[in-house]
Amino acid sequence: MESVEAQLKTLMVAGLAGNGAAHRQLLTSAAVRLRGYFARRLGADCADLEDLVQETLVAIHRRRESYDPALPFTAWLHAIARYKLIDHLRRRGVRAEVSLEGAAEMAAPDRADEYLAAAAVEQLLGGLPDKQRLAIRLTRLEGHSIAEAAAMTGQSPSGIKVGIHRGIKRLMEQARGGHGND
Length: 182
Hints:
This protein is mainly alpha-helical and 182 residues long. The chain has helices at 4-16, 20-42, 49-62, 73-92, 103-107, 112-126, 130-141, 146-153, 157-175. The protein starts with a helix and ends in a 7-residue tail after the last helix.
């Protein structure tokens, strides 16, 4: 039997490729998961439960192009749900309390932060020229040596080093509010 992650990811990828039936099935399956997610946090009798589910489904539909198939789908889904829950609680001025019965779930690894960090890195790297982005990705993110990165890209080792240096310099300029043109 296929895991929930694999099933939802397959539906998402098919939906992104234009399969409308897969996209509808994804939203239906995600709604079931979201109802449980919000019910555990707000109580199954929460009057706003269905509104939160619908808001999250609309956000998933609108932001579907931001999903990176290389990353787990459920982490992306839960990140959106988490932000919708936070927005809801802020609007209500509510401080949620969680009983110790939910402690095991809270201790389980939440990959939403991991997904958001990876998406932020991708967004930052997206502003770099291809050679700089690739040099940084291969050496700093994937852990390849300069020589390995050079062999993989067909560039010289010094070209990889220059790409890393210029890319990091550009990222630092962007972080300071500059344009980062090099």
